[in-house]
Design brief:
Layout: H1 3-24, H2 28-37, H3 41-61, H4 67-89, H5 98-111
């Protein structure tokens, strides 16, 4: 991994640790979004757990580099789901997917480096 890969990895670690925490602790805005998506609340916990698995995979990839591909693919899949939830299920405006799009791009960077 080069310096850019480490920077991208740390950004994803920070963002998805925060994202998982907002879901696990049922932060008010996250609950509102989840209501907009019309997903059951148990799925919020599943999503948060998958986000943490992605974070753990990135952290573990510092020791076991082969894990990075799997962690990045998981995060990319989660971000595709987030974009779908915002645009299709909740019918949010396009600006609502900017963060998910950026995280998808960072995950893609790690996948296709």
């Amino acid at each position: 991994m080069n310096t850019a890969d480490y920077i991208v990895s740390f950004i994803l670690i920070l963002m998805f640790t925060f994202s998982a925490a907002t879901k696990f602790f049922r932060q008010k805005t996250m609950v509102q979004h989840w209501n907009d998506y019309r997903y059951p609340f148990w799925f919020m916990d599943v999503t948060a757990a998958l986000e943490l698995i992605g974070v753990i995979g990135i952290l573990a990839s510092f020791r076991y580099p082969g894990l990075l591909t799997y962690a990045a693919a998981l995060i990319a899949a989660l971000m595709l789901g987030a974009i779908h939830a915002h645009l299709v299920r909740a019918k949010h405006k396009l600006y609502m997917v900017v963060n998910a799009g950026l995280m998808l791009g960072l995950a893609a960077w790690l996948l296709f480096r």
